[in-house]
Amino acid sequence: MSHVAGRALTVVALAAAVATGCGEASEPTALSVPLLPGSPTSPDVSEPPPLHPDRVAAGEELYQAYCAQCHGLDLAGAPDWQVPNDDGSFKPPPQDGTGHTWHHADQLLLEIVSVGSNFPQSRMPAFGDQLSDDQIMAILDYFKSNWGRQERAFQWEQTVRARGGS
Ligand code: HEC
Predict the structure, then answer these.
(1) CA distances from 78 to 37, 69, 70, 83, 93 (A)
(2) Which of these, 12, 24, 109, 151, could form a disulfide with 97 (CB 3.0-4.6 Å)?
(3) How far apart are CA 131 and CA 55, in angstroms?
C-alpha cells in the first residue's frame, strides 16, 4: 500500500477509531482531490467550521434525491447494516453519527462519492457524472449537521491532517 503522508495519518487514526468494517472497504484510491471550495486557509483543529444552513438544506434536498433510497430517508442506513451480505459486500451504512462516515476526512469522502470506492465488491455508485464536488460537499454538510460534537471534531481533525495541516 502506498499512501501520501496525510492519508497514512488518516489510516493510523482510523485504526484507533471504532472498527466497524469500513476500513478496507473505503481505502482511498490514488486520485488526489484538490482543496475544497470554501475551505478555511488556517484551520483550527479544535473547532470545526460552522455549517451554513442554506448549504445544509441544499445538501438535504440532494441527499433525498440521490442517496436516501439506499442510506435511508432519515440517514439510518439499511437494517442490519453491520452484517455483511453473503457475497462479502456491505449494506449501506448510516450517515448520521451512528455510522462510520465521520471517521473519514472530507477529501476521502468526496472521492468515494464522486469516483466510487475501490473496494472490489462495492455497491456504492460513483456520482461524479451527476453531482459537482460542491454539491457533494453540501451533502456532506448535511451529514455533519446530524453528527454529534465529538464526531464532528474527530472528522474535522482527519480533514485538517489529510490537507497536510497538523
Ligand atoms: C445503490 C445504493 C447506494 C446509493 C444510491 C448511495 N450509496 Fe453510499 N454506499 C452504499 C453502500 C452499499 C456502501 C457501503 C460501502 C460499499 O459498498 O462500498 C456505501 C458507502 C458510502 C459511503 C462510505 C461510508 C464509509 O464510512 O466508508 C459514503 C460517504 C456514502 N456511501 C455516501 C453516499 C452519498 C452521498 C450518496 C448519494 C449522493 C450515496 N452514498 C448513495 C450504497 C449506496
Answers:
(1) 31, 10, 7, 10, 6
(2) 151
(3) 14
Distance 21 CA to ligand 1 centre (A): 14
Interatomic CA distance for residues 125 and 117, integer angstroms? 8
Residue 30 grid coordinates: 490514488
DSSP 3-state percent helix, strand, coil across the chain (nearest 5) = 45, 0, 55
Which DSSP state fits 129? T
C-alpha angle 98-110-93 in degrees, rounded to nearest 5: 25
Using the 8-state DSSP alphabet, how is residue 101 labeled?
Answer: G
Q: Which of 75, 114, 124, 158 to mutate to test the pocket of ligand 1 (most atoms within 8 A of CB)?
A: 124
Q: Assess whether the C-beta atom of 77 lies below 6 angstroms from ligand 1.
A: no
d(Cα 58, Cα 56) in Å, to the nearest integer?
5
d(Cα 142, Cα 145) in Å, to the nearest integer? 5
pTM of the model: 0.79
Q: What is the mean pLDDT of each run of 10 residues along the chain (166 residues)?
A: 41 39 43 44 69 97 98 97 96 97 97 94 97 98 97 95 80
The answer to whether the beta carbons of residues 126 and 114 sit under 8 Å apart is yes
Residue with cell 467550521: 49
